[in-house]
Amino acid sequence: MRYAALASGSKGNCHALSSEGRTLLVDAGLSLRQIRARMDVLGWNPEEVRAVAITHEHSDHVGALGTILRRTDWAVIATRALRTALQAARGLDIPPGRWIEARPGLPLDWDGWRLLPFALPHDAEDPVAYRLEAGGLQAAVVTDLGHPTALVADHCQGLDLLVLEANHDLDMLRDGAYPPHLKARILSRVGHLSNGAMADLLARSLSPRLQAVVLAHLSEANNHPDLARLAAAEVLGDAPVSLQVAHQLEPLALAVA
User: Fold this and answer.
1) Which of 15, 58, 92, 93 is the most buried (most CB within 10 A)?
2) 133 lies in a domain?
């Protein structure tokens, strides 16, 4: 299995996973042109993309979806409530022939992949994360959640690859320039994970099977990669786990086997 963070942060998010020539995107928060260009930079073939799984309707996760619907034949995986929210909030009509319904807690088989969407605490309509399996390998992309619930922790166990939100450092956020209402939203139980909360969830996700951890959705204003990395490294200790930090502007790729 190959993984790429094509973009990750407050300005746009898109993750790609590939197995045996079948590539699946999780979210599409940057332009279709940038998705293809960043795949090219990594040596990935954009023509192998077959579908995009959407986690929720916020613009940094669905910015390219309209263009994708017009210019590609990719399937769109989304919950029924999310499909309705995309229509109401953004005027995006996902045709029935392009839509694959995701149901939280129920596995979905698609083109050699098994996807398991599961619920997250976030201020969106029916937000989910995805656990994904192909070729006997397990991965999960878990971002945009206000706190690590027991359900989330359960779905983060037994993975080969974990992509996990480390949105903000508490001190940087509290002392920073964001207005009070935005700070309150981020800090709420339906906001975003701090470095400390990420470390707590990571500690609950450790297993001998875990090969790689990618820290994602870092705030450029309220976090620093070194702080996020340090928080995760303290949890990982001497475990033989590759630790990477995804960025907004530079794509990152790795493989698990």
Assistant:
1) 15
2) yes
Indicate if the alpha-carbon torsion angle 149, 150, 155, 161 is positive or negative. positive
Q: Is residue 157 part of a domain?
A: yes
Residues 239, 18: Cα–Cα separation, whole Å: 26
What is the domain extent for residue 196? 2-249
- Please check whether residue 237 is in contact with residue 208, taking contact to mean a CB–CB distance below 8 angstroms: no
Tally the domains of the chain. Answer: 1
Judge whether 76 lies within some domain: yes
Lookup: tokens for 224: 């620093």
Any domain includes 255 = no
Q: What is the CATH number of the domain that holds 114?
A: 3.60.15.10
Select from 185, 198, 105, 183 the least CA-distant residue to 147.
Answer: 198
Q: What is the pLDDT of residues 208-232, one digit of tens each?
A: 999 999 999 999 999 999 999 999 9
Tens digits of residue pLDDT in 93-147: 999 999 999 999 999 999 999 999 999 999 999 999 999 999 999 999 999 999 9
The whole-model pTM stands at 0.97
